[in-house]
């Protein structure tokens, strides 16, 4: 399987703080890759490096076979990487349609007529056609999250970075958002998803990468990662990890043979 996105030994330091250290990973074509880790693990910094908001201190980043390392964000957008933000960033004084039109015009580098058609197409896709002429600042959080997703999709990305798209949503809104993310994936977009809701990321991702203190801690299938001792220790502490491991060991140990009448074990 070919790589839609590839990072080679990527690091980022801010003065004496090393936020990302020697991270190498691949996002495969057609994959949803979950990116998890405790607060401060370096997840959003890694997103910023991929999107061009930060320039790596070391390492290289490739979109397919094209290097994007250190390129400015607008160039990276034009190359096919789009993103959303944990804290919603929309133009609140503009209408929903105008927000999406910005993405279609800027990212798609097309004329206004074609951009308008693209904006309407994406609004229909994300379920916001009925709110197209509402002022974005007047709609709810769940709808604003869809606006920034629609704006990202309007550029026709090959890779989409989602940073906590479910944060602040109620259970019903989360289910609707999950179905929308799956629809985006079915449309042919490869995704990296940062998410703190473990049930969401485990059910959505084909593969999961775990970061801790700026480094890759583990990667693999959701089932493998959730049972990884290092991952459990990173989230809950080493003491809990040892207790959990001991509990599993006891639960899986073969039972002792029954005792005889004199108290000795029968053979």
Would you kindly provide a written description of the structure presented here, covering whatever features stand out?
The chain has 267 residues and is α/β, with parallel strands linked by helices. It folds into 2 domains: 1-80 and 158-171 and 181-220, Rossmann fold; 92-156, no CATH class. Helices cover 40% and strands 23% of the residues. The protein contains 10 helices and 10 strands. It has helices at residues 43-51, 73-79, 96-108, 112-126, 141-153, 171-186, 198-204, 222-226, 229-236, 238-252, and strands spanning 3-14, 17-28, 32-36, 58-63, 66-67, 81-83, 159-163, 190-194, 207-212, 215-220. It has a 6-stranded mixed beta sheet with strand order 6-7-8-3-9-10, with helices on both faces. A 4-stranded antiparallel beta sheet has the order 2-1-4-5, covered by helices on one side. The longest helix has 16 residues, at 171-186. The chain is globular and about 60 Å long. The termini are far apart.
